[in-house]
Design brief:
By secondary structure, this protein is an alpha/beta fold. The protein is 32% helix and 25% strand. Strands 1-2-3-6 form a four-stranded mixed sheet. The protein has a two-stranded antiparallel sheet with strand order 4-5.
Length: 131
């Protein structure tokens, strides 16, 4: 699986412990890595998990350029964008988007795996993806 490095940081002002989980994306499959990240961001790895509460876990992903996809997803997977105007739908393949910014691909996969509620924005801020 992936290399996990867990550290805890405490701040003097709030006296809360922040857990930092470092994952290595080298050789990982995009979907499996994204589900693992989503679990950590939601706090489901913790025994004190509550669905309506946000956890303070920070997830740091390194080697985003070395993530893999299976099958023909490089050419067949399309990311759609709609401008809001008639005929304004645009699509780019996974290969084009990955070439432009590999961190965007991982962030988008994780974002789509998180529940669509008020906590998603804060959880995505705690995700750090490095090339």
């Amino acid at each position: 699986m992936s290399k996990k490095k867990i550290t805890t940081k405490t701040s003097k002002k709030t006296e809360s412990k922040k857990e930092v989980i470092e994952l290595d994306a080298k050789g990982q499959i995009l979907g499996r890595l994204s589900t693992e990240i989503a679990v950590y961001l939601q706090g489901k790895h913790s025994p004190a998990y509550k669905p309506n509460m946000d956890d303070d876990t920070v997830v740091k992903v390194v080697n985003a350029k070395k993530v893999k996809v299976t099958g023909k997803k490089k050419t067949d997977k399309i990311y759609w964008h709609y401008s809001g105007y008639p005929g304004g739908i645009y699509g780019k393949t996974y290969e084009e988007m990955f070439e432009k910014d590999p961190t965007w691909v991982i962030r988008k996969a994780v974002e789509r795996m998180l529940p669509d509620n008020r906590l998603r924005k804060g959880r995505m801020k705690r995700l750090i993806v490095e090339k």
